[in-house]
Amino acid sequence: MILLVEILKSVFLGIVQGLTEFLPVSSSAHLNIFPWVLSWEITESFDLSLHFGTLLAIFVYFFKDFVIMVNGGLRIVLKKEKNNNGKIFWYLVIATIPAGALAFIFEKMIDLIIGDNINALMIVIAFALIIMGIVLYIADKNAKQKVRFENLKFAQVLKVSVSQALAAAVPGVSRSGITMTVARILKLDRESAARLSFLLSAPMVLAAVIVNLNNFKFNLPFLCGILASFISGILVIKYLLDYLKRGSYKQFAIYRIIIGVAIIGLAVIRI
User: What angle do CA 166, 162, 194 make, to 5 degrees?
Assistant: First the structure.
């Protein structure tokens, strides 16, 4: 019975991770909110395992794209053959290095400031959700859709990549939220902004998984959580890329603000 309960918890949180990792609403915020509200314990290794599930979703969904870009990147190095796919591949690789370093520094700083104060953490999450929701809405509404993914410049990729550092440090900012926001400010069209966000997240999450691989517990609840986040993650990637061909980020911005206000209200009641 206890095992069944743990499996159901893992599947539920896996679905939450898959639904929120790629939408600009912050998966880290939601993976803090539900355990906080339901008085569940969630370990850092389990949190990371759910991110591993959505990482697999990225690799599977964009497998063909990765193969084409890696092949193009190797042709640039080995054959000195210029090609657009290879150029973008090296843009992604190089831009990830400073983003990873800054993310590590910022994460350590926020840990020192907040520590284990869960109510303080939830207030930070709430304000991050609200503020980034407003910024996302303004950026998306006013940005001109001029730049497509295949026409990216290195400066644009670098700026979007470095913005991930803030999301890694502050739960509620949202990795996909801030990268899509910065991409829209840099005039990428909505679909290209989402695609760049997804591809940039892969090396960051992969690095975190490799560093913490020894902490993984490959038991049944963990595996069920990974599978749930993987399946729901693939479905969300497809939904979002299709939706952004005709829709905007407005509904996600509104959702962020509503959830942020609700968290502040609940935190005040619990204090």
Answer: 90
Q: Which residues contact 98 (CB under 8 A, 6 or more apart)?
A: 158, 161, 162
Nearest Cα to Cα of residue 225 among 24, 27, 1? 27
pLDDT of 2-17, one tens digit each?
788 889 999 999 999 9
User: Residue 139 is encoded by which pair of tokens?
Assistant: 């950026």
Q: At how many degrees (to 10) do helices 44-61 and 220-243 cross?
A: 50
**Cα separation, 66 vs 202, whole angstroms:** 11
Note the pLDDT tens digit of each residue in 218-256.
Answer: 789 889 999 999 999 999 999 999 999 999 999 999 999
Say how far apart CA 8 and CA 126 lie, in whole Å.
27
Taking alpha carbons only, the member of 242, 230, 232, 236 closest to residue 60 is: 230
Q: 51 in helix, strand or coil?
A: helix
Nearest to 149 by CA among 20, 244, 249, 27: 244
pTM for the predicted model, two decimal places? 0.91
Neighbouring C-beta atoms of residue 210, cutoff 10 Å: 8
